[in-house]
Write a sequence for this structure.
């Protein structure tokens, strides 16, 4: 059967189980969109407002399901608009196939209209990428792209297809998807050595991450941790791997990690890192991190071993295969003294944070009095500052807890980047894998709206929550329009503190309160904005108002914005300054 | 790595698919990860014209050398990396 390039591409997507794609049309993908028109009963195309939003949607779709997300963009600006989305997926190891059109082969290299070397541009942020030069290669390249995207450590792959290749015709072979590339099994001796080291340790600590989500090894982690009775700390990418109700889970570790998790991490004589890359945000100073502890590193990517920290034993492979085998080999044990240490740290934390409430109220009073700040914010800001009665307890934490009262365990939570992201990571009790979508590696402000759309689509228009800040939301809020178009019930909770809070926090702590360009003098009226976009919006200045807004939002069949006015001086604690160690932790 | 290790010169033989962009992937990896390339030659392999051999001399401490080899191994156009 002879088909044109665009048809071959769509047929191959269908053969790979693709049912939803995100994208934006343009001159060099008209042929592809023409083919999509024929196949619309088999593939639904979601049209976003901007290619970046489409890329984040494909990424969110993949994160929420484990399936490969697909995004389409035209050449030139369409392609470059994908770059942040592709890099976001690359840093967080999300399987994604990005398809771009390019100018016809005879125009390539001539600086033609909307021509850009997207293969060159995305080389450092893709697992692999292709330009299809001949129609005969197309089918095989698409199959290979899907194979690479999900094999081993997942990641994005880009396929650039010149317009003439989409038009040319050739025989379509209808080939099946290629099997995932094999992962070598870990040698028994290496496992035995690891088991021996674990058995000999007195204070084992498990540090687990996104790798466990990728290979669905959350349950294997639970069984393993229980067997050796080890406390578990998680990177933000792995936060959903273990149910928060589990007594061994101590939550987030690293720069903004929980007090207890950080202390246990620091006290451990053995750290078992699983599906993690020991990033700078997780370790701080690498020399201090490994000073008093041994490290066993388990990861699917051999290049992560000894990249950031030195491990004594490394196991390269699939954690879903390794963990059950390791669990068999280690001795079942209980560590009452070690576990009791966590309780001691919990008491310490309580003591250290005891006066937090008072201090917060004081701070709030102060912020009300800060005339210069009010001038910066203008009259609107003044009105808003007055709206927040001090000591009402309308804190980021109380907002997150109230929203949690409306969600189920499997509701997908998406975030943007900054203070709100850390508050969510610290406070929200995630219970089910793949329910937190957040840009952990690249730290992409503007990720959340697109990701929430992708997740909602992936789960059959399921209710999804986006926690965002007024800084992040302004980056890609246009995609709220997309959620309106497709009737996706996304609840957008905006923490509005009138500032770029995380940068402001650093300016406060490390730059002598010189708030350079972090005070936002914006006058965005979110309820009106939501309405203008065709959705619904509310403003909350107290928990009572938030309760009413959430009651309405969770009953509404479409996207809703809820603006929560919070104090500009709210900060994320604990914080371990960049490059610092657990000893440098600032708790308030 | 905070450890101070001695910098040494070493030579790599890298077999890559003889495809457009393969050399760029290899050299791009070096520049973006801050590795050194001291000398570099490329030629098609006599025994298999679909492959090219890159002979490269580089320098770095032991940890860097190991990382270079592992990162090169991850590139899909790279078929073999050997320290010679």
């Amino acid at each position: 059967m002879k088909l044109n390039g665009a048809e071959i591409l769509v047929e191959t997507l269908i053969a790979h189980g693709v049912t939803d794609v995100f994208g934006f049309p343009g001159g060099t993908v008209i042929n592809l969109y023409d083919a999509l028109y024929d196949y619309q009963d088999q593939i639904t195309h979601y049209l976003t407002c901007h290619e970046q939003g489409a890329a984040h949607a494909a990424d969110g779709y993949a994160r929420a399901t484990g399936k490969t997300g697909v995004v389409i963009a035209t050449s030139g600006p369409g392609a470059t608009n994908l770059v942040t989305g592709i890099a976001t997926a690359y840093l967080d190891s999300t399987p994604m196939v990005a398809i771009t059109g390019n100018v016809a082969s005879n125009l390539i290299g001539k600086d033609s209209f909307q021509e850009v070397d997207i293969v060159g541009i995305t080389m450092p942020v893709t697992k692999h990428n292709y330009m299809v030069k001949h129609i005969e290669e197309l089918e095989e390249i698409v199959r290979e792209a899907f194979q690479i995207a999900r094999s081993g450590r997942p990641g994005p792959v880009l396929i650039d297809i010149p317009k003439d290749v989409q038009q040319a015709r050739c025989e379509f072979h209808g080939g099946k998807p290629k099997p995932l590339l094999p992962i070598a099994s870990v040698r028994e001796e290496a496992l035995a050595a690891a088991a021996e080291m674990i058995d000999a340790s007195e204070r084992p600590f498990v540090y687990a991450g996104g790798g466990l989500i990728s290979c669905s090894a959350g349950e294997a982690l639970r069984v393993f941790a229980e067997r050796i009775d080890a406390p578990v700390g998680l990177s933000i990418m792995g936060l959903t791997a273990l149910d928060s109700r589990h007594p061994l889970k101590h939550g987030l570790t690293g720069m903004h990690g929980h007090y207890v998790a950080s202390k246990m991490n620091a006290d451990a004589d053995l750290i078992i890192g699983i599906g993690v890359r020991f990033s700078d945000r997780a370790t701080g100073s690498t020399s201090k991190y490994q000073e008093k502890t041994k490290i066993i590193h388990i990861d699917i990517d051999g290049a992560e071993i000894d990249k950031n920290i030195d491990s004594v034993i490394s196991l390269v492979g699939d954690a879903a295969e390794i963990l059950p085998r390791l669990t068999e080999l280690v001795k079942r044990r209980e560590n009452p003294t070690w576990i009791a240490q966590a309780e001691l740290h919990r008491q310490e934390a309580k003591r250290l944070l005891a006066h937090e409430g008072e201090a917060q109220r004081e701070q709030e009073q102060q912020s009300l009095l800060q005339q210069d700040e009010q001038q910066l914010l203008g009259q609107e800001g003044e009105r808003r500052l007055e709206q927040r009665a001090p000591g009402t307890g309308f804190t980021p934490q109380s907002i997150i807890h109230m929203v949690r009262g409306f969600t189920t365990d499997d509701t997908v939570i998406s975030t943007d980047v900054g203070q709100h992201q850390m508050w969510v990571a610290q406070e929200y009790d995630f219970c089910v894998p793949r329910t937190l979508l957040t840009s952990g590696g690249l730290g992409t402000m503007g990720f959340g709206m697109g990701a929430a759309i992708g997740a909602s689509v992936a789960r059959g228009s399921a209710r999804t929550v986006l926690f965002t800040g007024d800084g992040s939301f302004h980056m890609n809020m246009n995609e709220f329009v997309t959620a309106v178009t497709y009737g996706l019930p996304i609840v957008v909770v905006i923490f509005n503190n009138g500032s770029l809070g995380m940068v402001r926090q650093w300016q406060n702590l490390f730059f002598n309160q010189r708030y350079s360009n972090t005070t936002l003098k914006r006058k965005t009226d979110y309820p009106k904005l939501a309405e203008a976009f065709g959705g619904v919006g509310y403003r909350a200045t107290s928990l009572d108002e938030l309760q009413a807004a959430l009651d309405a939002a969770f009953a509404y069949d479409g996207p809703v914005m809820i603006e929560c006015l919070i104090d500009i001086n709210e900060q994320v604690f604990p914080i371990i300054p960049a490059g610092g160690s657990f000893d440098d932790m600032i708790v308030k | 790595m905070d450890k101070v290790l001695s910098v040494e010169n070493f030579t790599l033989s890298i077999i890559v698919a003889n495809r457009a962009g393969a050399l760029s992937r290899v050299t791009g990896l070096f520049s973006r990860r801050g590795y050194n390339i001291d000398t570099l030659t490329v030629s098609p392999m006599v025994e298999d014209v679909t492959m090219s051999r890159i002979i490269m001399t580089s320098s770095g401490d032991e940890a860097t050398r190991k990382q270079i080899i592992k990162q090169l191994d991850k590139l899909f156009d790279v078929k073999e990396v050997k320290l010679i």
User: Anything to note?
Assistant: Chain B has one domain: 8-83.
